[in-house]
## 1
Amino acid sequence: MKINLIETQPIAGQKPGTSGLRKKVPQFQAPHYLENFIQSIFNALPERVGSTLVLGGDGRYFNREASDIVIRMAAANGFGRVIVGQSGILSTPAASNLIRQRKTLGGIILSASHNPGGPQGDFGIKFNAANGGPAPESLTDAIFAETQKLTTYAIADLGPIDLDKIGITAFEGFTLEVTDSVEAYQALMQTLFDFDAIRALFASGFTLRFDALSAVTGPYALRIFEGLLGAAPGSVVNGVPLSDFGGHHPDPNPVNCHDLYDLAMSDAAPDLCAASDGDGDRNLIIGRGLFVTPSDSLAVLAANARLAPAYKGGLAGIARSMPTSAAADRVAEKRGLAMFETPTGWKFFGNLLDAGKVTICGEESAGTGSDHVREKDGLWAVLLWLNILAVRRESVADIVKAHWREFGRNYYARHDYEEVESAAADRLMLGLRERLGSLKGYRHGPLVVSGADDFAYRDPIDGSVSAHQGVRVMFEGGGRVVFRLSGTGTAGATLRVYLEHVEAGPALLDLDNHAALADLAAAAEAIAQITRLTGRDAPSVIT
Ligand code: VG1
Ligand code: CO
């Protein structure tokens, strides 16, 4: 094998964010950009020699070219084997599963997840460690440090590599294994859920519409829902991964998935509508006539998980990201389960899952998952819903409404202000941080601030501290507004404002979500001065 050592220079800005490094495709295509970052990952892994790496991506534009480069660089950097999904495709949870099952050193996932794809869209790279989970901050910091001092990268001449054909190819001192993208993941799902019960549910006439948004979950959903579980042909739509996602925005919220949403609200609504994101780790759940907020979905899944074989012994605990509503906290409290509140991003759940402290985790951004892998998992969430529906034989709406009656309801919305000028967004956050100490007692309309802080998290397992994870403003009665800046965008800054209002009284469980949050939205504007500082008088997206 001929190894080429290529001279390079550090490239500024290769700092991983909430979930890996995300940039516009043309930036990744620029000379050395991708190679520099990959070499920096490898340099941060001194134990790589002779070890195995998993590789796969969500099929977006540049996936194939990048796969080829990563394989040749892994060979040149001493890896003994790369296990790559067929055609370079692996969903994020499927990659996490392979890392764990095959006991590899880790994996590289080529994805910008919920960000749009295509030649002018976004590309991204995540490194997952040996536990299958996103690299912890200590490792992403080490990778970033490597990017700042890089002088050379190594890449091997392997000749043409065929990623479409399943099989093993041996090179001198290096093995390439092209594996079926779905098989191992599908087998894992069969160990978790009662497939017979779900098959019986479909056989009884239950209807599903799953929108794969022309992203990575298509092949998984087709094989599992239509193939194994007997969902009617055509239940899975947009099931072929396309490099530009067929123009779909791969962030599965009711705004981007308006066709699905409209269908769910219509007379022709299937029993369950669902979607996933670019890389298959998120899930959108809409029952007939009722959108289930991801925060509620986490709470309902946690409360009912025992109905699925994998969780019949109960849960060790629940974790949610800080901006996620406290709906799951009420489940934990009533059931006597441990509850953890972590910063945004799945990497913060890894230690809790590894230590066996929690079984189910979730985020308000439509991510839910369990200890079966170390990523959020879109299809897993749909399957857990299906398993629960198969046992309870009630509608999604009835299950959610019964849940509110038992636990109370957390009205919830996220207001995103996208592509705000970075300096303005920074000024807004700085202004909030400066006022933290004086906000207590502040009144706006009927609301009174009971406390405010800048969320910091101390990992209970390794003691590491992550500060400045978002400004929280708490109100008397349990309401809350959270302000933070996105760590996944590629243009300007995105301000996220999370609104939560709690009601327990039975008469107040059926309010309009938007109306229930109106006072909080007004208070958020008054406290943060969003319009004055950003020039925006309305959010770009409300989810
Ligand atoms: C967003 C979400 C966060 C999620 C992250 C990665 O991060 O808010 O909950 O973990 O995306 O999801 P941010 O920093 O933009 O708010 V994925 O499915 O895009 O990897
Ligand atoms: Co994703």
Note: The domain at 409-542 is CATH 3.30.310.50 (TATA-Binding Protein).
## 2
Amino acid sequence: MPKVLVATVKPFAPAAVNQIREITEKAGYEFVLLEKYGSQDELMGAVADADALIIRSDKVDSDVLAAAGNLKIVVRAGAGYDNIDLEAASAKGVVAMNTPGQNSNAVAELALGMMVYMARNQLNGTSGTELSGKTLGIHAYGYVGKLVAKIAKGFGMVVYAFDPYIAREMIEGDGVTCLDSAKALYGTCQYISLHIPATAETRGSINHDLLSVMPEGAVLVNTARKEVVDEASLEKIFEGRQDFRYVSDIAPDNAAHLKDTYPDRCFFTPKKMGAQTSEANINAGMAAARQIVAFLEEGDRTFQVNK
Ligand code: 3PG
């Protein structure tokens, strides 16, 4: 009987766990849950005899893969898979997948919530500003970016996007103005919402060059990955511009210093929570479980992200 391990430091909502359990048990598999584990050793012990693994932002590195003697598939219940060592997975013949789009709405709603939070001075009761009529630049127009555009238009924002991997017609078809470079996006938009993955190309790419051209009242919103923003540039822009604000779901390493020095101009959630809704957990968790069953039963490799 194949064994499916769900290993999540940050637990899914209980309803999502029940759904995953139901799908795997209906397929005749054994279901095992490891939540809030404290060390990689614990994960390595639990994965030793698992055939399939479902994770969230949990790190699956070469040590974990080496400890997983029976593993055939690992599914990241979510979008970003920078937490999986894809080369090590491929070398071991382990298929890695994600569940694109399944948790996007939760992240998009939080991005807009963060914009409102900053526009209203962190809800401190003083007179703030409105989002209506303001320019918003969406940096990367994937599942989340597209939803952010849709919701932002409901607020009356004027929406722009830059994404070299998405056809202009797709972006413009949504009533969003497509710009040709990141510099043009940052130079045009008061609000920037980041939706780029963390890759070798994007790490540290949001730098002083880009942030310094943002218009008056600049607000950078990060629900993507902390690594994409260059922290030295962040520090420099906070120092140089009294109007610059940064709100992030993934606190930078220098968060405590920024918070102490510029309390009114930055906000960081205590824990990454963009995808932390019951709906997103259910959608991503169920998709992961179904993808495992489809792979183990029929060899279906849709959503595979390694070669
Ligand atoms: C993702 O990549 O799907 C999001 O960053 C959510 O991550 P999480 O599952 O750790 O909340």
Note: Residues 278-298 form the longest helix (21 residues).
